[in-house]
Amino acid sequence: MNAPAIRQDLLAAAVARLPDNGLRAQRELALARFARQGLPGTREEDWRYTSLQPAVDLSNAWLASQPRAVLPGDVPSDEMPVQPAQRAIDAQWLRFLNGIRIGDTLPDPGTISIGRQPDDDRSLIADDGLSSLNAALLYDVVHIAVPEGVTITRPVGLLLANDASENASVGMTRIVFEVGPGASLDVVENHLSLSAEDSFAGVIIELRLARGAQVRYLRLQECGEAQVLTGRLQVRIGQDASLRYTSIDLGGALVRNDVAIDLVAAGSDIIANGLYLASGSQHIDNHLRIDHRVGPARSRAAFRGILHGRSRCVFNSKAIVYKGADGTDAGQSNHNLLLSDQAEIDTKPELEIHADDVKCAHGATVGQLDEAALFYLRSRGIDADAASRMLTRAFAASVLGDLSVAAAADYVAGRIDEHLDLLVSEPS
Amino acid sequence: MTAMLEIRDLHTKIGDTAILDGLSLTVGSGEVHAIMGPNGSGKSTLAQVIAGHESHVVTSGTVTYCGKNLLELAPEERAREGIFLGFQYPVEIPGVNNAYLLKAAVNAKRRHNGQPEIDAFEFLKLARARMSLLGMDPGFLNRGVNEGFSGGEKKRNEILQMAMLEPRLAILDETDSGLDIDALKAVAKGINALRSPDRAIVLVTHYQRLLQYIEPDRVHVLSKGRILRSGDKSLALELEERGYDWVREAASA
Ligand SMILES: Nc1ncnc2c1ncn2[C@@H]1O[C@H](COP(=O)(O)OP(=O)(O)OP(=O)(O)O)[C@@H](O)[C@H]1O
Ligand SMILES: [Mg+2]
User: Fold this and answer.
1) Which of A134, A343, A381, B242 stands the most exposed, by the fewest C-beta atoms within 10 Å?
2) What are phi and psi of A64, to 5 degrees?
3) Taking the model in full, what pTM does it have?
4) How far apart are CA A161 and CA A98, in angstroms?
5) Among candidates A197, A195, A251, which has minimal Cα distance to A222?
């Protein structure tokens, strides 16, 4: 099968319609690169199980309608209803609608600075098609900086909403975090859909951790049933810096989450865990890539999935230990619970080791609910459904126990419970 | 007086293998029965069939509990009706909190009996009291069900569940195996505390030791899926001394 193709002429026209707010040159560059790259097809190893065809179809239909560029003035800040996560999680929320930031001010402007990406920042130029498409259609890059030594106690929340009700079915978001030396920050990234129409959102977030910085990052994906979402978190980890990352996938039709972590200096420590719940015909693909360029450093990736219906999930994590990166300690695991025999998981935790003195382990499992445990619970008077729910929750519990952002724990636990209830009650 | 448990000519299979082969047993209210027998004779099978394990298929025979056809009930319904199985191999369930399960089990039964749910305070008080009777550290409440418990701790946890649920019919499958001497006494105390004229207890055991603490009314020998011999408590002593061969020989003669 050929790689899915977005019509370049229509794309060029859409790019031309965007106002020149300083990004035009970079957009044109991205457009030219995209012409060569296109979107990845299923012949590429990293995309074997995930076809971007729905994203292409949505993009082409949207581009063909010659959409007017959505600009910041188009989204009045009082029109967007308060979202559940905003109510439940005490955070400094920044709202984005279809990639455009609604003009919220931060309650704590003295410490965190928000602005436009400096024009000399070349990070928009990337070597993959999804990033080029994102850069070509981007209105603006939001740049969030935490200065050296500052500890931000209230998490920064990113509300990434999509509303496709007025033909705005494609939206691109790009955010850069610059966390200064020794600074500390919590981030909650919450994806959601405000309309039921088909839509495609492309989100790229960069996270730069300077020496000794500490970031706790939660991605909470609660998109609607018609949402296609491709997300990328690109992390650069400085010396002795640490990252706690948790990813929770609850919604979406077709979701791809790429997390790329680059360890460029010694002493860094990364724990990435995640949970994906899928049912119906959902497709959720998590791809992690961890580059251990220098040792000693530690990385852990532990994801769990619960699949029902005809859902399909993909897990791939690859840790590469470079030559000379001695003292690297890398571990990866992926455990899956299949509640239906029609659900499918493709899992592959991988290690590529070029150094000598390393400690590495990886493993994956796929299984059903434990019959012996089910009978044990039932023999105590718990009915079969409740017993299934208990065991399914127990399976998810280890991720919740290690949630990166403590302030979000109650909300996330509640949302997971709601979804598990739906999942377990759904006929398999 | 009607029997609490009445099993008549029970035949079961698992997969294609026949296990229980014409087993009959009657347990009256207030009685304690001991079931002994060689490894693989079908003791755990009997216990699991009574508890409703769906892998065991009943091919013929009847099981009546308090006048009801037990075989029609799902495992959870049997539990709520007052049947408790102490597992020979209690299952570890990481991620399900021990206290959470205990409370859910108690409440499932209460709801079934039209009683209000137990409140958190009352539950803790009751659980602590039962645990102290069994010499269990209250810390076990906060652990995953049987998760990482030693063999003896798992058995005590079974008895704790029994003590909380106060079953009418308790079937304890080798609850005495793997217990140290103090634990055996504590477990026996827990079981004896449950004895009453309107309850019955079936002890599956390999050893006479437990029966020194809990005196049985009847002792049965199970072999190859049926009861070969029944007697009073002296039968257990005789078995301890002479083994099972004479029972088999006597039965085939
Ligand atoms: N799933 C199964 N498939 C085939 N045979 C089985 C299965 N489960 C149990 N059996 C057989 O049923 C027989 C009775 O087993 P059971 O566990 O009831 O014995 P037991 O009397 O409790 O033995 P023990 O004293 O060792 O606990 C054994 O021969 C056992 O191998
Ligand atoms: Mg047994």
Assistant:
1) B242
2) -65, -25
3) 0.90
4) 6
5) A251
Ordered domains of chain B (ranges, CATH): 5-252 (3.40.50.300)
d(CA A234, CA A342): 33
Instruction: Report d(CA A13, CA B160) in Å as an integer.
Output: 73
User: How do residues B78-109 score in pLDDT, each as one tens digit?
Assistant: 999 999 999 999 999 999 999 999 999 999 99
Token code pair at residue B125: 């008080």
What's chain A's Rg over C-alpha atoms? 21
Query: Could you identify the residue written with the tokens 């990337």?
Result: A126
Q: Are A323 and A355 in contact (CB under 8 A)?
A: yes
3-state secondary structure chain B: CCCCEEEEEEEEEECCEEEEEEEEEEECCCCEEEEECCCCCCHHHHHHHHHCCCCEEEEEEEEEECCEEHHHCCHHHHHHCCEEEECCCCCCEEEEEHHHHHHHHHHHHHHHCCCCCCCHHHHHHHHHHHHHHCCCCHHHHHCEECCCCCHHHHHHHHHHHHHHHCCCEEEEECCCCCCCHHHHHHHHHHHHHHCCCCCEEEEECCCCHHHHHCCCCEEEEEECCEEEEEECHHHHHHHHHHCCHHHHHHHHC
Distance, in Å, from the CA atom of B175 to the CA atom of B160, rounded to the nearest integer, reads: 12
Distance (angstroms) between ligand 1 centre and the Cα of A205 equals 58
Of B10, B11, B19, B49, the one to substitute when testing ligand 1's pocket (max ligand atoms within 8 A of C-beta) is B19
Write out chain B residues lying below 8 Å of A398, CB-based.
95
Q: What is the pLDDT of residues B8-22, one digit of tens each?
A: 999 999 999 999 999
Backbone dihedral region for residue A393 (phi beyond 0: left; psi -120 to 50: alpha; all else: beta): alpha
Most B CBs within 10 Å, among A379, A383, A400, A417, to test the B interface? A379
Kindly list the domain boundaries of chain A, sorted by start residue: 8-369
Interval A109-120: pLDDT, tens: 667 777 777 666
Phi, psi of B34, deg, nearest 5: -115, 135
Which tens digit of pLDDT belongs to each residue from B206-248?
Answer: 999 999 999 999 999 999 999 999 999 999 999 988 989 988 8
Helix (H) or strand (E) holding A377: helix A371-378
Cα gap A148→A232, rounded to integer Å:
26
Contact B36, B205 (CB under 8 A): yes
Phi, psi angles (nearest 5°) of residue B53: -65, 125
In this structure, what token pair is assigned to residue A393? 């929750």
**Distance in angstroms (rounded) separating the CA atoms of residues B115 and B108:** 10
For residue A368, the SS3 value is coil
Is B201 in contact with B191 (CB distance < 8 Å)? yes
- Residues on chain A touching B101 (C-beta within 8 angstroms): 377, 380, 382, 390
Compute the mean pLDDT over every residue in chain A, rounded to the nearest whole number: 92
Residue B227 Cα, gap to closest chain A Cα (Å): 25
| Span from the CA of A204 to the centroid of ligand 1 (angstroms) | 58
Segment (H or E) for A249: strand A242-249
Residues recorded for chain A = 428
Contact yes or no for A231/A256 (Cβ under 8 A): yes
CA of B38 to the centre of ligand 2 (A): 9
